[in-house]
Amino acid sequence: MTLPVPPKLPVPPVREMSNTALADLIRAGGPYRGKAVFELGDRAANDESAASLLGDLTRLPVLRADRIHRLSLAWAAIISLLAAKTSYARQTAYQSFAALPESEQRDLLAYLRCDRIEDAQP
User: Among residues 87, 26, 94, which one has the least CA distance to residue 55?
Assistant: First the structure.
């Protein structure tokens, strides 16, 4: 039995979307949620609202379970927050990290090659 090919969806214009629209795209799942995570991550350096949304989204099971190799989208969001290099984004990253299960915390620290999330320098 041959599975039907899913229809090709149009690429959403993530750079033109509002933070709320990006968050909605992430919550909905689908093939472009990663683009939306990375766009919010890019905005986190200059936009506390984007950093807050991204921090909240790291708690979604879909982001924690969605992986590219070992890296989950939740990890990517936390790393983006750390890379934003603002005190607000880093504090949001620390809170998001603390909300991860202990095994995920351990694995993320190993991935980042540090002993504490406060020492991470992505």
Answer: 94
Q: What is the pLDDT of residues 4-53, one digit of tens each?
A: 766 777 889 999 999 999 999 999 988 899 999 999 999 999 999 999 99
The residue with tokens 């005190």 is 87
- The Cα 49–Cα 43 span in angstroms is 9
State how far the Cα of 27 lies from the Cα of 95, in Å rounded to an integer. 20
Helix H or strand E segment including 55: helix 48-57
Strands 71-72, 67-68: pairing is antiparallel
The answer to whether 60 touches 19, Cβ cutoff 8 Å, is no
Identify the bridge partners of residue 67 per DSSP, sorted by sequence position.
Answer: 72
